Fold this sequence. Notes:
Rossmann fold, alpha/beta, transmembrane helix, 258 residues, transmembrane, two-stranded parallel sheet, six-stranded parallel beta sheet, 8 strands, 2 domains
Amino acid sequence: MVGQSFGIWLSRCKVIYYTFFSWMYGFVGSCTNLAMVNSSWTQSHIEKMWKIPKLTKKVYPPCDTSGLQELPLGRSNKIPTFLSVAQFRPEKAHTLQLEAFSIALGKLEADSPRPKLQFVGSCRNKEDEDRLQKLKDKAIELRVEKDVEFYQNLMYKNLVRLLGGAIAGIHSMIDEHFGISVVEYIAAGAIPIGPRMDIVLEEDGHQTGFLASDANEYADAILQLLRMPERERLEMAEAARKRRLILKIGGKVKDWRE
């Protein structure tokens, strides 16, 4: 009983602390002369907290994708490959991707080429390594372990090789400030599948990717890509690559694991 009362009291203290901290954060931010943010999501968050919309400017981070843009857009139809690049952290929602892939395989026509899902990421600590093992166990539980590959702490040159062979890149983190992996998908010619973001927008009236929010929507996007004629996929990949925010922005490439 005493422990329960202490827990309630501690929770209330945390609420008071975070409420005060949020107020201080907003007050201090409102005093700034100019705020630069790196995405539409961050811009919306800062404008809500700091209440200085006219002084908040969006500036995308530098992303050197010149090498990725040299990769050919054509892909092998023998084994269609989907790529997921992100640290093995809980907010990256890897399990959602795995479940969506399993759903898609269950709906795929028997005479269609069987696709492959490749997870690429790094582990920061023992918790991340345990999370990766649970993901491997989940693949076995879903009976898709033969169709899924895991790459831990892969060198960048090997990541480029995988990007060059993928027909699509999957991203499932919600409220991410700026998804560097999605930029690399698009530059490499891999169609992005994920939440609405700055870079998954139309280009000259052409679709550049697929938006999804749950396992069924991700599965539908995977199936659409697998059933899409190669000509249409190439047109979408080319339109995505034209997105101006990923072209010749300069600066050094960020660590892809972030």
